[in-house]
Amino acid sequence: MSIQFFPETKTFRLDTKETSYIMSVSRQGHLLHLYYGGKLGDDDISVLTAGEIRTGFSPLPYEYADGRYSLDCMPQEFSTDGVGDFRYTSISVVNSDGSYAFDGKYVKHRIYSGKYSLDCLPSLFSNPDEKADTLEVELADKATGVRVTLLYGVFEDKDVITRAVIVKNGGNDKIKLRRIMSCNLDFRRVGFDFIHFYGHAYLERLTEREHVTHAACEIGSVKGTPGHEHNPSVVLCDRNANEEYGECYGAALLYTGNFICNAKVDQLNQTRFVMGIHPEKFEFVLNADDTFTAPEVVLTYSDSGFAKMTHHLHDVFRENACRSKYMKQRRPVLVNNWEATRFSFTGEKIVSIAREGKKLGADLFVLDDGWFGARNDEHAGLGDWTVNREKMGGDLSDIIKQVNDAGLMFGLWFEPEMINEDSDLYRAHPDWVLKIPGRQPAICRNQLVLDITRQDVQDYIIKAVNNILDNNHIEYVKWDFNRYLTDTYSALCDNEHQGEIFHRFVLGFYKLLDGIILTHPDILFEGCSGGGSRFDGGMLCYQPQIWCSDDTDAVWRTKIQYGTSFAYPVSSMGAHVSACPNKKTQRTVSFKTRAAVAMSGTFGYELDTTRMTDAEKAECAEYTKLFRKYYDIITYGDYYRLTNPFENTRYVAWEHAAKDKSECLITAVTMDAYTQHHIMYLKPRGLDENAMYETELADGKVIIMSGKTLMKVGLPFDLFVSQYESRQFYIKKV
Ligand code: GLA
User: Fold this and answer.
1) Quick check: is 608 catalytic?
2) Whose CA is nearest to atom 4 of ligand 1?
3) Is the pLDDT of residue 50 over 90?
4) 156: Cβ below 6 Å to ligand 1?
């Protein structure tokens, strides 16, 4: 069992293959955090890390007024509120007497094999052939009866620990939950950096690294969805940590809504890290016996840099998040018509894009926005999920048949949570949108947001979307979400509960996913949200892949995909070859480089195939073939970032390596044009030092060398080529 409890010291110890996580119940009853890091020996560490401390003006519990035990200084597992800890608290609750206080003390615990799951929220699952255990620790505030159950899931072989929290009102009267963090990590140290992934629409998950100091590092979203601006995944690491060196912790929240992540050094030079639902505009009323479940956080630790941390997260997101058959089955290479046509197309045009797409080697054609209702631009149609027969020149089934006859599977775009005022749905149900009485709701992309906290709205959406899916031969769905939430007020909810709407919206969204995705196990679902505004672990529990960004410019994509790769597997990153000059950046990059970059993702095309020359189509078909050849290492292998595109402006490089070290693929792209002959060396990682490998050098010479030599010396990569040229090196064990 990976979880142990030592009754004499009241210590809990969670062990994975290479990490230990330790906490103990203090003599005052609080659950103290003692350690999270590299695996420890079988020693009792409480004498080292549970030492009581206080500082000037630090409050002490009443019964220990003469001692040194201050909640403001002690490392806590789930921090108290209002009774002595002035740091960022795990909970904020308004009790029935109006007081703001929570002092949770240990009541009991339970250890069992298998991984817990959560009610109404996504969470990782354990596979039958792997070891996973659960610890539940219950804390209670004696004065109010409020109880908190801390849940820990331990994936022993994957070096991953998950956390979640359930709050229960065990008192007799109503309480209001104002903040609940899923994770609190107290470190008795300083010297961390905080790496986070920021951006905006069309440029998501760029990378920024800051020192964690006495001023908080904080990211989050109050947009009702994770958003383009910040991602609910972060890295906390040593100041000198890099890809191969240094301690680092990776954290990702499985929640498709408002979130916060905060790291700050306290007055005693200790660091507190918290992650959970954003407390702004959040309030949840709990009557006696009601519970509230806070989302799951996935944590991992690496003693040797980011690459190892990334591999842990990629493994767990690939194998323990989504039950789609496409997690194991080869996914189709697709052609999507959005960048080619936007809203102006006919059924005939669609079929010809698909037909010509077949010549690129694609397996699937995706009909994007504009096929339904009166949707000829952004102003109308959202909500009316019936085919526009006039525009399409017939029924959907006619189009699908022609696409299928051309030898391609058929996929369709939906944006289920949205509505245009100019739609039959809005005309019939103007009260179904989020809006505040007496105000006009804010408009974004000419659309409003359906109030999916309501059962009737959920039922409508599930029925309308399923009606299309069940009556047509659809094998793929792109599920979009093209605005943030404002005016989050529900007409069916009384005033007292309006603070719950942001969270209820997320719960409503997961109900839609349950009702549509889980009932269609044979369909491949791809998430999307104005590009990658909804790229989080919660989504990955339902959808194997998510469209990374509407910026398909290969050069920017190297940066977007770099940031995305810290937490999320390559197999989840929707990436396509699009036309040049690029629609968003006007940049022109060769097909070869566009394909090399898109290959570090799910691979597909976003092109008007009817306007391509035969030579271009034949060239793309070669890239499709290449992607298929490397599919397994790209999809299931270990990913290595060989350069940081924000630091190395000369070239970017990355690697996909087979887990069994039998082969790898290195891709490099030059970022500038050079006047002199430069040779850079690309050092592969993840090879077997003692095995011999064969590879072809840039000049065509085939060499056979040991993994040790290749990893130490590297492959020469000539920079004396034009800007944005790329090269792929395939290395195979002989
Ligand atoms: C979003 C998506 C695009 C496309 C459009 C359609 O912006 O990111 O890929 O599907 O919506 O309106």
Assistant:
1) no
2) 338
3) no
4) no
Query: Cβ(480)–Cβ(414) under 8 Å?
Result: yes
Catalytic residue, from 81, 536, 608, 638: name it. Answer: 536
**Residue among 413, 445, 548 whose CB has most ligand 1 atoms within 8 A, to mutate:** 413
Over range 466-486, report the average pLDDT.
Answer: 98
**CA nearest 72: which of 62, 84, 81?**
84
The full length of the chain comes to 734
Does the pLDDT of residue 49 top 90, yes or no? no
3-class SS letters over 468-485:
HHHCCCCCEEEECCCCCC
Atom of ligand 1 nearest to the CA of 547: 8
Q: Is the CB of 339 under 6 A from ligand 1?
A: no
pTM above 0.90, yes or no: yes
CB 561 within 8 A of CB 549: no
Give residue 152's pLDDT. Answer: 98
State the Cα–Cα distance between residues 567 and 234, nearest whole angstrom: 8
Residue 536 falls in the annotated catalytic set: yes
- The DSSP 8-state label assigned to residue 380 in this structure reads B
Ligand 1: which residue has its CA nearest to atom 12? 369
Between the CA of 368 and the centroid of ligand 1 the distance, in Å, is 8
Distance CA 157, CA 136 (A): 20
Measured from the CA of 550, which atom of ligand 1 is nearest? 8
Contacts of 692-701 with C-beta under 8 Å, sequence gap 24+, read 692/733, 692/734, 693/731, 693/732, 693/733, 693/734, 694/731, 694/732, 694/733, 694/734, 695/729, 695/730, 695/731, 695/732, 696/729, 696/730, 698/727
Domains of the chain: 3-320 (2.70.98.60), 325-637 (3.20.20.70), 640-733 (2.60.40.1180)
Output the residue whose Cα is nearest ligand 1's atom 6: 369
- pLDDT of 637 > 80? The answer is yes
Q: Is the CB of 259 under 6 A from ligand 1?
A: no
- Of the pLDDT bands very low, low, confident and very high (cuts 50, 70, 90), residue 97 is very high
